């Protein structure tokens, strides 16, 4: 990007989807990693969590009703937009159960598979590939802008004009018109991964014409935003409740080996065996660094149970690709999401980078049920304090 100066409708039962943190005890965050068509994995888990919340509260309960901020990158931003975009009644355009249906119906058009051939590396260098079908994204969230989302969102992108990160947030969009972009433009921009999808140009106009989320909320605390009670929350991460959802990786498959990579040149780093090593390494490293940092921080504060990371780092073959959107592969990715729910809660080993089961915390399904209970109790407390 470059910056210049058929859904399911929920009943309109509550136009205030999320009372502010100052009326409760916790600050609640959900983050979703990028990963192309592998977004089906977190989408499956999100649908399970929303179903649990509906069991506790009402059939109209939606994910956006329970989180103070939802953060997403690339396909995670697409999921974030779908979870927070309002309809004309200020409720949600999509329920979580709609997410997988959308990917199954539109995945082949949004993530068209690049044909592997002899000239593939050269085509990457020349920018011949033009993946992502942007018209599908633009039609998804209508004309909704970021300041109008039902709950706060955070989406990172890169401004290629100045070679620096740009963070689109609901809080900033409400106060800075130049940050109030359309959800569709934000989703397209954060998805513009080099060699996969083209860059996206758009302009925002003024009135005249998963660490990122924690940082953004902490910034609002320090700014003395009235939504955050300084005496109650300060900048203490022990008051944070975080669910972080990965889209899977292939680390345990040992796809790349050092004794082979040390002989690679430019072409091999750009394209090797149907994959793009340099993109894989950079994308995995960034998400893993955030996970390690947050895991260590919460463990140091003795509140590690307030942070739940759900990730599968053993993907192999087609399932580790970001753009194989065949029906067979998409169904397999949904199966991985369902299998993850049955697996034990795991945390990353900071020495090996491998996720290891945590004794005594049960399965991810059981952990999500516990988180759903906390989310429900916090919401009820906030509404009670506001006499809603």
Mean pLDDT: 77
Which percent range fits the helix content?
25-40%
Tell me what portion of residues adopts beta-strand conformation.
Answer: 5-15%
The number of distinct helices, counting runs of at least 4 residues, comes to 14
What secondary-structure arrangement, pairings included, does this model have?
Elements: E1 27-32, H1 40-56, E2 69-72, H2 75-84, H3 97-110, H4 120-126, H5 134-138, E3 152-159, E4 164-169, H6 170-175, H7 183-190, H8 212-222, H9 230-233, E5 240-245, H10 258-261, H11 266-270, H12 277-300, E6 307-310, H13 327-342, E7 346-348, E8 355-357, H14 364-385
Parallel strand pairs: 1-2, 1-5, 2-3, 5-6
Antiparallel strand pairs: 3-4, 7-8
Motif (GXGXXG): 34-39
Keywords: Hydrolase, Lipid degradation, Lipid metabolism, Plant defense
Organism: Urochloa decumbens
